[in-house]
């Protein structure tokens, strides 16, 4: 379970990079976005995963960077307040259960 949760944490943390630099008289910054989903979208997906697996935010929060942690926290609140019916519908989906095995 933790390995699957780790995938979401690592992905959320890696979606955006920001760096500042200074060299002599020059200084500046650069940012880089990885993939199609931004931090908010990955964090929302992680929040859905946490809700469906009945995992608390504390399972992921210590491992998340500041922005994804905040976005995930807000997403969990939004899901609890506005998306109860959607969560119930997702939980009712019948399908083949499988276990992920990593070698």
Please name the defining characteristics of this protein:
two-stranded antiparallel sheet; 103 residues; 16% strand; alpha+beta
Please outline the helices and strands.
Blueprint: H1 2-14, E1 16-23, E2 26-33, H2 39-52, H3 66-82, H4 84-92
Antiparallel strand pairs: 1-2
Task: Please explain how this structure is put together.
This protein is of the alpha+beta class. It has one domain. Helix content is 51%, strand content 16%. It has helices at residues 2-14, 39-52, 66-82, 84-92; strands spanning 16-23, 26-33. It has a two-stranded antiparallel ribbon. The longest helix has 17 residues, at 66-82. The chain is elongated, with a radius of gyration of 17 Å.
Global structural class: alpha+beta
Number of helices: 4
Q: Tally of extended strands?
A: 2
User: Strands of the largest sheet, in order across it?
Assistant: 1-2
Structure, briefly:
This protein is of the alpha+beta class and 103 residues long.
